[in-house]
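for the writeup, i need someone to sanity check this before i put it in the appendix. the sequnce is what the collaborator sent (i think, or maybe the updated version? ugh). structure was predicted straight from it, no edits. if anything looks off just tell me and ill rerun, i have time this weekend
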Amino acid sequence: MKLRDLQQCLWYETKVQAIAMRLVDKWGFANAQTRAQAVAHRCAGTRAKIARDIAVSVTDCNRLDIYYH
């Protein structure tokens, strides 16, 4: 894997995590997870992949205790 590819991957993961944290901030964990999964089911293609990644990241926020309030 080239350095540029790694940088893009880290940038993407950082953005996905930031979006997930904002969703949890706005709606709380359970509602954010439900909404993120619903969006992922409605989308197709690249948007579906991004939406699934966000839904997984919301779950990770709770499972890994990253999100505190």
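The chain has three helices and no strands. The first helix runs from residue 3 to 27.
thx in advance!!
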